[in-house]
Amino acid sequence: MQALKKLGLLVTIEIAMSETARMSHYVLPAKSAFEKWDASFFNLTFPEVYFQLRHPHCQSLGEALEEGEIYTRLAEALGLLPEVPKVLYEAAEGDRKGYATELMKILSHDKATGRLLPFIVAKTLGRKLGSAHLAAVWGTLMMYPRYAADNLTRAGYEVTPLTGDALFQSLLEHPEGVLAGRLDPDRNLEELRTEDKTIDLCIDEMAEWMLEVEPEQEKAAMRNLEYPFVLMAGRHFQYTANSIMRDPAWNDHKEMCTLLISPEDARGVGVDDGGEVWVSTEASRVKIRAEISTMAQKGTVVIPHGFGLYYDGEVYGTNVNQLTKNTHRDRLAATPLHRYVPCLIEPA
Known about the structure:
Blueprint: H1 2-5, E1 11-14, H2 19-23, E2 26-29, E3 38-42, E4 48-54, H3 67-77, H4 86-92, H5 96-109, H6 117-129, H7 132-154, H8 163-173, E5 178-182, H9 204-212, H10 215-222, E6 229-235, E7 259-261, H11 263-269, E8 276-280, E9 285-292, E10 300-304, E11 309-311, E12 314-316, E13 341-347
Parallel strand pairs: 1-2, 6-10, 7-9
Antiparallel strand pairs: 3-4, 4-5, 6-13, 8-9, 8-13, 11-12
């Protein structure tokens, strides 16, 4: 947050007026999942692969745009896009077969344009389809048979230059999703893109770090007299929502953001069920209601994530991220250790 405050210009693409958006100089409003075309991939049906286009369910309000449209407009305004031939705009108004033919002609003459293909398709076919996202899916599917011909054949498709377009049309007609390929379980590892077709489980950057780990040292490091409890930040349950869900009506205005604490620890701290406690860490201190539960292990307390968000000028619940110290983190990715935050619990 301190670093963001020092920026000369902060532009945010957001669905909701998030904490980052509130600090921004400009906020570019994006459509929510209910207002735009999006895609879902299902990998739990192996060896069959299903693909789904999520259709918009309502009109968006105000000036919100798809993220793909926002990126395309930004790229154009920054002068990153080449001039698109008029013939491609004209072809986009006809059938997609003719458009594909014209697009291939342009790419064959200027292969460097290929890396900007999503933007070009968004500006042309996207205008006809009314969606940059839809245009991007079409472009991806047109290239799909080149890399997955065997998978398409096993799924019952006849592979032709227009198989991708046929699959795209099927997705438009079947919002529940369609079978997009069938893998061969006996040759599954051949799909790997690594040079030796293997998965390398050794992370070189971690090798020396792993050799440093000693059980006794780890136990000693876990003992913290100043902060004797361990906070696990990020409980998942039926009222946990993404941070774009800010209206407390999501949880029927119930006070769902509580501190789970074991009966034994609650007695030790001197707090009753529903009583307020202070949770202190190296980073911050917050007040929250205690919920005595056998779900919490002795010595460990739990606070859900997705709360402590602004809505109509008020804050609902506790933002558990405030309790996470930025220096208490994984040394490679610098990700704060949300699942192990030393803390102190005191009655309020």
